[in-house]
Amino acid sequence: MNEQKLDKQKVKDALVSQLGAEAASTKTTESVDQDAARLDQDMPMDSGDLSQSDQAGEMRGRLSAVAQGELGGIQEVEALDVSPKTTIEPGAIVAIDGDHYLVGVPASPFECDGVTYEGMSSDSPMFEAAQGKSAGDTFDLLGSTRHIDSVD
Q1: Which strands form 138-141's sheet, in the order they lie side by side?
Q2: What is the Rg, in whole angstroms, of the alpha carbon atoms belonging to the chain?
Q3: Contact 113, 55 (CB under 8 A)
Q4: What is the pTM of this model?
Q5: If 0-12 CB within 10 Å is exposed, 13-18 middle and 19+ buried, where does residue 11 land?
Q6: Which of 30, 35, 120, 136 has its CB 3.0 to 4.6 Å from that of 63, i.e. a possible disulfide?
Q7: Rounded CA gap, 92 and 39, in Å?
Q8: Those residues with Cβ within 8 angstroms of residue 12's Cβ, 6 or more apart along the chain or in another chain
Q9: Which one has a higher pLDDT value, 132 or 54?
Q10: DSSP letters for 54-85
């Protein structure tokens, strides 16, 4: 990746931090929607008020499911073994054609020490094509040859 030693735990911690921030944001939105779903029983209501309350309640349920999924994602990342690796497997940090990945978890792009990483899920087509390969190897993905720059 670069000349200095890669701190894999720091990369993992950066992803956990990002996922925690996303979960907190979802919880805040869920709370706002919960407040919007409440009707003031002392005020006159029309069918539009009831409809909006129902929609807000449905949205709250969806947001709650998203928040639970995000918390599960944090647990998945925390459980990831980021010990040194020589092949592409869960817990490896790899560079492929200049792009950086944390293998074993799905994740949106996140930054650590000025490098942008993405998650590479263990059920993704890229993982299936690259699994077990080492730095310097190539693999085919969707008709394109990809080069593995490094595996840590």
Answers
A1: 110-112, 115-120, 99-103, 93-96, 144-151, 138-141
A2: 21
A3: no
A4: 0.70
A5: buried
A6: 30
A7: 50
A8: 77, 78, 80, 82, 102
A9: 132
A10: HHHHHHHHHHHHHHHHHHHHHHHHHT---S--
Whole-number Å distance between alpha carbons of 67 and 64: 5
**pLDDT value of position 23:** 77
Angle at 106 between CA 117 and CA 146, to 5 degrees: 60
Match 């919880």 to its residue by tokens: 27
**From CA 10, how far away is CA 4, in angstroms rounded?**
14
CB neighbour burial string for 68-78, b if at least 16 within 10 angstroms, e if fewer: eebeebbebbe
Q: How many CA atoms lie within 13 A of 55 on its CB side?
A: 6
| Residue-level pLDDT at 22 | 81
Q: How far is CA 21 from CA 17, 39, 108, in A?
A: 6, 30, 13
Q: Tokens 């080069």 label which residue?
A: 147
DSSP structure class, residue 136: T
| Pair 96, 52: CB distance under 8 Å | no
